[in-house]
């Protein structure tokens, strides 16, 4: 009975890794980097994480988890409630609806598709935020955040890939 | 490097995948609908029940404060090392300018001492009560919430340290913002550049009354100046004390640009070096009630 319990705990811990990694990245977004000459804001790390795990391990990135992560992110950052969540849901939905693209997709294709999906998701969140706040958010910041998010994808994808190989 | 799910799926998920696909599709579709409904509900809730959301925010910020503080430590270390390297190159120049500044400041220091003594004497002569002492807490900035819609920071001081909503946040240079949410261990400070920040100020030597309004850019606008004002670039801007949120005469910044459409202000605060904030309780008891009314009106 004991080894069985250990094994089950082990499986559970492994299943939690994508969620914990994503939550960690979401928290990391609010850590002040204080390098405004390099980047006045941080990439949408949560969007990258949700994209990667919904492509490679959709079983470990269920809908309720997306909701919790999005809510957590919006409460932690000062963004209008629900906008960050909307971006994550959009990514999740896009990945799930275009699942055929990802069969045997090369890294480059995954990156290009991510660039496309991230553009849609971040624009949607920005529009919702503008609507909620009642004035247009800074579009230059949106563009910058988008560029950073697409730029950071290869690094994070490598990190996630290593994690996946080692642990899952 | 990147593997496809089939290679790595454990046995457990394999059995799930073998479920008949119509059932799976149905469950998945239901999950989608639920997720979308929950998202819309969240968006609506954020707009409708700000008090509840505020409470949830405080709870999350409070519980995450130790983690964020821990994470910000190495980042701060790296940043300090970088700054150190950069400054090493120009250390001689910095030293010289600091010497000159020190001399100048010493002169001011003596002057201030003199004036303080004189002020005390005169107050004693007039029987004036001393200024109400302002209590303050110094707090490390542990989080930065700036995005396309807000400018705020998290500080590692909460109600346990005596911080409360409404306390004024100062950096060494001038006004930085105001505490808008206070948890037990952490608080959120809305910066003066935030889009919903409105602060009554007085501009220049003539003390023209105006309102400084943030718009998420680095240089807030100065609104409602009287027609025919004499405001020019370089004019000092301080808080006017109207409305009761901020006491008068806290330095805010200087007028950066004056055009037909708008007047912009350059804050004294160096946003790139926002490491510590002083959270000051000015204790303005008589003004609390009208203040909350004003805030409610401003929020709408």
Order of helices and strands of chain B: HHHHHEEEEEEEEEEEEH
What does the main sheet of chain A amount to? none
How many structural domains does the protein architecture of chain A include? Answer: 1
Report the mean per-residue pLDDT of chain A as an integer. Answer: 87
General form of chain B: globular
Q: What's the CATH architecture of the domain at 135-299 in chain B?
A: Beta Barrel
| Strand-pairing-aware structural class of chain B | alpha+beta
**What is the H/E order of chain A?**
HHHHHH
Number of strands of chain A: 0
**What is the top-level CATH class of the domain at 135-299 in chain B?**
Mainly Beta
Q: Biggest chain pair contact, residues each? A: A-B, 62 and 61 residues
Distance from N terminus to C terminus of chain A (CA atoms, Å) equals 23 Å
Keywords (chain A): Cell membrane, Cell shape, Membrane, Transmembrane, Transmembrane helix
Subcellular location (chain A): Cell membrane
Protein name (chain A): Rod shape-determining protein MreD
Family (chain A): Belongs to the MreD family.
């Amino acid at each position: 009975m004991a080894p069985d319990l250990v094994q089950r705990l082990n499986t559970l811990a492994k299943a939690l890794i994508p969620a914990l990694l994503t939550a960690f990245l979401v928290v990391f977004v609010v850590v002040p980097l204080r390098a405004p000459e390099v980047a006045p804001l941080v990439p949408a790390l949560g969007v990258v994480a949700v994209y990667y795990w919904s492509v490679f391990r959709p079983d470990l990135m269920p809908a309720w988890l997306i909701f919790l992560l999005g809510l957590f992110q919006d409460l932690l950052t000062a963004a209008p409630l629900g906008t960050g969540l909307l971006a994550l849901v959009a990514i999740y939905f896009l990945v799930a609806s275009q699942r055929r693209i990802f069969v045997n997709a090369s890294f480059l294709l995954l990156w290009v598709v991510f660039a496309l999906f991230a553009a849609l998701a971040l624009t949607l969140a920005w529009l919702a935020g503008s609507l909620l706040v009642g004035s247009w958010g800074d579009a230059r910041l949106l563009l910058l955040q988008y560029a950073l998010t697409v730029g950071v994808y290869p690094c994070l994808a490598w990190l996630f890939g290593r994690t996946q190989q080692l642990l899952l | 490097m990147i593997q496809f799910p089939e290679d790595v799926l454990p046995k457990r998920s394999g059995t799930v995948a073998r479920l008949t696909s119509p059932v799976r599709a149905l469950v998945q579709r239901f999950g989608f609908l639920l997720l979308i409904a929950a998202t819309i509900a969240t968006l609506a809730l954020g707009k409708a029940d700000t008090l509840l959301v505020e409470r949830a925010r405080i709870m999350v910020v409070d519980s995450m404060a130790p983690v964020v503080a821990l994470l910000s430590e190495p980042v701060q270390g790296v940043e300090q090392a970088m700054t150190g390297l950069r400054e090493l190159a120009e250390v001689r120049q910095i030293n010289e300018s600091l010497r000159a500044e020190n001399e100048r400041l010493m002169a001011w220091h003596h002057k201030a001492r003199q004036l303080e003594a004189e002020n005390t004497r005169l107050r004693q002569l007039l029987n004036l009560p001393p200024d109400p002492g302002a209590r303050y807490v110094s707090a490390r900035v542990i989080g930065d919430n700036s995005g396309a819609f807000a400018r705020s920071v998290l500080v590692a001081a909460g109600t346990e340290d005596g911080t409360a909503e409404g306390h004024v946040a100062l950096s060494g240079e001038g006004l930085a913002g105001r505490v808008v949410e206070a948890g037990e261990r952490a608080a959120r400070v809305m910066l003066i550049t935030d889009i919903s920040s409105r602060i009554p100020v007085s501009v220049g030597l003539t003390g023209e009354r105006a309102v400084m309004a943030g718009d998420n850019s680095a240089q807030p606008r100065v609104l409602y100046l009287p027609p025919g004002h004499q405001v020019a670039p370089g004019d000092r801007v301080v808080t006017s004390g109207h409305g009761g949120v901020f006491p008068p005469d806290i330095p805010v910044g200087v007028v950066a640009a004056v055009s037909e459409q708008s007047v912009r202000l350059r804050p004294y605060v160096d946003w790139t070096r926002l490491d510590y904030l002083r959270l000051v309780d000015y204790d303005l008891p008589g003004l609390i009630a009208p203040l909350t009314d004003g805030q409610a009106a401003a929020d709408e």
